[in-house]
């Protein structure tokens, strides 16, 4: 295996390990810190930029491996058709089989590396969006709980104020009732006083008349 295919295999292994870490059932706090670090770190951003360039070269290798695979397969089929009824050369067949195997291996290696890179990127952004959604939900839930508590406290204050107003109204009504009673009694006392004063004046007038006679 050449150096660039060896590096491609190492990158594929690293992608597999990274994918296992991303989908592992980690605690929410650890996963949140991990994804925030991966999405906000400048070092990770530089590494991701370098990987994007590497995937461009891997894409070129994939195209080249596919072309070689088709070419070797066509040569093997052609050699097989030309040697019908002729004693086959084991070395030639072994060489063609080996070339076909290597071409297919390189095609699968580069193809799976590119495919897993797309899966990793999509999985990362899906999980990151899920974490952000959970954070927004937690904030909304906290705000709703605080608002409910504030509304409850406000309702209690309003209830206390209403009770105080009712008490004041009852006291004012009681005072008004007492005032009406006192006013009625005063009117009755005034009328009785007028009646007694009138009788007294009449009695004094009768006595004066008797004296004059």
TrEMBL record:
Is Acetylation a UniProt keyword of this protein? no
- Keywords carried by this UniProt record: Coiled coil, Endoplasmic reticulum, ER-Golgi transport, Membrane, Protein transport, Transmembrane, Transmembrane helix, Transport
Q: Which family does it belong to?
A: Belongs to the BCAP29/BCAP31 family.
Q: Which PANTHER family match?
A: BCR-ASSOCIATED PROTEIN, BAP, ENDOPLASMIC RETICULUM TRANSMEMBRANE PROTEIN
Q: Which residues form the Bap31/Bap29 cytoplasmic coiled-coil domain?
A: 160-210
Entry's Gene Ontology cellular component terms: endoplasmic reticulum membrane
Q: Where in the cell is it found?
A: Endoplasmic reticulum membrane
**Which ranges carry the BAP29/BAP31 transmembrane domain?**
1-139
What biological function has been recorded for the protein in this entry?
A: May play a role in anterograde transport of membrane proteins from the endoplasmic reticulum to the Golgi.
- In Swiss-Prot or TrEMBL terms, this protein is called Endoplasmic reticulum transmembrane protein
Write out the coiled-coil annotation as residue ranges: 155-199
Q: Which organism is it from?
A: Hebeloma cylindrosporum
Q: How does it sit in the membrane?
A: Multi-pass membrane protein
Any single Pfam family the record assigns to this protein: Bap31_Bap29_C
Keyword Membrane among UniProt keywords: yes
- Which residue windows are transmembrane per the record? 6-28, 49-70, 108-131
Q: Which domain of life is it from?
A: Eukaryota
Q: Name one GO biological process term.
A: intracellular protein transport
């Amino acid at each position: 295996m050449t150096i660039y295919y060896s590096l491609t295999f190492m990158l594929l292994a690293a992608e597999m390990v990274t994918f296992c870490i991303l989908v592992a059932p980690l605690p929410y706090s650890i996963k949140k810190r991990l994804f925030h670090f991966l999405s906000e770190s400048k070092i990770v951003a530089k590494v991701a930029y370098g990987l994007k360039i590497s995937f461009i070269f891997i894409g070129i290798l994939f195209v080249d491996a596919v072309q070689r695979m088709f070419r070797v397969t066509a040569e093997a089929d052609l050699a097989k058709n030309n040697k019908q009824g002729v004693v086959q050369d084991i070395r030639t067949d072994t060489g063609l089989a080996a070339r076909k195997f290597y071409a297919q291996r390189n095609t699968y290696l580069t193809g799976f590396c590119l495919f897993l890179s797309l899966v990793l990127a999509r999985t990362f952004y899906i999980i990151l969006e899920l974490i952000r959604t959970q954070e927004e939900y937690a904030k909304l839930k906290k705000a709703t709980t605080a608002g409910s508590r504030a509304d409850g406290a406000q309702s209690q204050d309003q209830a206390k104020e209403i009770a105080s107003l009712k008490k004041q109204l009852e006291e004012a009504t009681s005072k008004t009732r007492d005032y009406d009673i006192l006013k009625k009694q005063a009117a009755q006392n005034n009328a009785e006083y007028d009646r007694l004063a009138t009788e007294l004046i009449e009695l004094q007038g009768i006595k004066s008349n008797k004296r004059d006679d």
